[in-house]
Design brief:
This protein is mainly alpha-helical. Helices cover 63% and strands 4% of the residues. Among the domains are: 102 residues, Serine Threonine Protein Phosphatase 5, Tetratricopeptide repeat (Alpha Horseshoe), CATH 1.25.40; 98 residues, no CATH class; 70 residues, no CATH class. Strands 1-2-3 form a three-stranded antiparallel beta sheet, with helices on one face. The termini are far apart.
């Protein structure tokens, strides 16, 4: 890859490539930093500095620091390479910088823009193929045709470039080819194709030893292995255990990049455990850590795998994870994946509507009976805020679960009467659609609003809004603030306080956690009630608590 590297870098990289302990990894990193210090503190030739910066950014730094930190050293390598007109090393640094951004969760538009910076530098067919490999993968994820200058022209044959790489035994080149194919197959769900490329990568893996690409190969090949865990032979199971050991080590040296990956693989391994709630918690933790690190593709992939696991045991929950994955892919810019998941979600929604509300609690069935029938012009309004909704909002709003495209809810189901002995019945019988509409309109017109009906409707709206708040935010603090705001709006209150009581029954000290006043809701850092007497009526709260306990006693 890079020529003229500092021997110190080679020592550090070889120690990292063969490391089995954290001490060895840290020692390799120390050698890498020493080489950078020498380059930056002494006058050195630009052609040497270019290779040192590029090699450090791709082979040493990613094992110990967040991927975003590598961008600075890639830029330094690019600047030094441009000084010496070293197009080979410079183009490699440009391409690696873009691909590292891909793994760091940068928008695919930005990644593609970074790749296009290498177009003026690439002259020979080998370099064009080096650029075309990641470009083709990104265009496939975006559902676009590859641009001519990125290797999409008819006068450039990828197969011929691959044959030349095989002829000259360019193992690093061959590893990259199979690596990108394996990566694309993992995201598109083509497990068999991905496994075949993963096995080909294993043949050329030694040529990429120590580079960050070898670490990504270890992770994504482990995902494919676990997808086919039941069909693995003994040698593949041994290889999988080795990959898990490596990822455990890397999760300790660079948790921002590898911790969520390792925990996701552990969740994949535990899918057949007898306690599915623990497995679901493991998936959730991995997804949360991926989002916390800013790695949207990882979070989307994890949620998609969790959705597949839940598809048979909990279809409704599976749909929620699938919709979450769709939104993360959308943020990332993977339009092809968004289209694929949107079609699957639409199929699930249709199937759900045809089944009816048999999976919902009876309270929800009865509450739906008193909701006003939406008119066609208002069917895309949010019933909670009375604002027009965008198509994207409607796509993942739980409200859409109550209808199928092109059909009003009343045209699908007769709302049950609130009288005793009545139950929900489908109108799909021998009666015509006109007769069905007349029945429904007659039923809704006879239902006069009552105080209890209005209260139940408000309760349903609160439940729906709370469900949306929990689904659409990953931060616990934000969810708490939204829920308190919803409770205050439902109760019609201008002021509210959330308090918890300590376990010490002798003191019975109340701790203030959240204070809401008007439209402002703020978290309080677990402060005793007597210290908040200026904003909370302490005596009134204590009197209410103790009098309630006295009544119970």
């Amino acid at each position: 890859m890079y020529s003229n590297e500092d021997p110190i870098l080679h020592i550090g990289a070889s120690m990292i490539a063969t490391a089995t302990t954290e001490e060895s990894m840290l020692l390799g990193f120390a050698y890498g930093r020493l080489a950078i210090r020498i380059i930056e503190s002494h006058v050195s030739a630009p052609e040497v500095a270019c290779c040192v910066y590029g090699f450090f950014a791709s082979n040493i730094l990613p094992w110990h620091r967040p991927l975003a930190d590598s961008q600075r050293y890639f830029l330094a390598a690019i600047n030094k390479g441009l000084e010496t007109y070293d197009t080979m090393s410079t183009s490699i640094a440009v391409i690696d910088r873009a691909v590292f951004g891909f793994f760091a969760g940068e928008s695919l538009d930005l990644v593609l823009a970074k790749l296009e910076e290498a177009i003026p530098l690439v002259k020979r067919d080998t370099g064009r193929h080096w650029l075309a490999m990641p470009a083709k993968m990104i265009h496939r994820l975006r559902g676009m045709e590859v641009k001519e200058e990125l290797g999409g022209s008819t006068n450039f044959d990828h197969d011929i470039a691959l044959l030349k790489a095989q002829e000259y035994r360019a193992h690093t080149h061959l590893f990259r080819h199979h690596f990108y194919q394996m990566l694309l197959a993992t995201f598109t769900g083509q497990t068999d194709v991905g496994l075949s490329h993963a096995k080909a990568c294993e043949i050329y893996h030694t040529s990429a030893g120590g580079s960050f690409f070898s670490g990504m190969y270890v992770f994504y090949s482990a995902v494919l292995f676990l997808d086919n865990q039941d069909t693995l032979v003994q040698s593949e199971q041994t290889l999988l255990r080795q990959k898990m050991d490596l990822l455990l080590l890397w999760s300790k040296t660079c948790p921002s990049t590898f911790e969520h990956k390792y925990k996701f693989l552990r969740a994949m391994q535990a899918r057949k455990d007898l306690d599915p709630l623990n497995v679901l918690d493991a998936f959730d933790e991995a997804i949360f850590l991926a989002l916390e690190s800013g790695m949207l593709p990882d979070a989307a992939l994890f949620a998609e795998q969790c959705s597949r696991w839940l598809s048979s045991s909990s279809p409704n929950r599976s749909w929620q994870y699938q919709d979450f994955a769709r939104r993360q892919y959308d943020f990332w810019g993977a339009s092809a994946k968004v289209k694929e998941l949107t079609e699957l979600i639409a199929i699930r929604q249709t199937a759900f509507s045809l089944r009816g509300f048999c999976n919902y609690p009876r309270m929800l069935k009865l509450t739906l009976a008193i909701l006003p029938s939406p008119s066609p012009k208002d069917e895309s309004r949010d019933p909670f805020t009375h604002r027009r909704l965008s198509d994207d909002h409607l796509a993942h709003s739980p409200v859409r679960l109550r209808s199928t495209p092109g059909n009003n809810f009343n045209e699908m189901y007769v709302r049950p009467s609130l009288g005793r002995g009545n139950s929900t019945t489908s109108i799909h019988s021998s009666s015509t659609d006109d007769e069905s509409r007349r029945k429904v309109s007659g039923l809704t017109s006879t239902c006069s609003p009552r105080d209890s009906d209005i209260g139940t409707e408000l309760d349903l709206q609160s439940v729906m809004r709370a469900s949306l708040a929990i689904q659409e935010d990953a931060q616990v603090q934000n969810i708490i603030l939204k829920l308190v705001r919803i409770i205050m709006q439902t109760a019609g209150a201008n002021y509210g306080v959330v308090m918890l009581r300590e376990q010490n029954l002798e003191k019975k000290t109340l701790q203030v956690e959240v204070i809401g006043e008007g439209n402002k809701v703020s978290l309080v850092d677990h402060k005793p009630l007597y210290l908040q007497s200026d904003v909370v009526p302490a005596r009134l709260c204590e009197y209410g608590l103790f009098s309630t306990e006295a009544d119970k006693g």
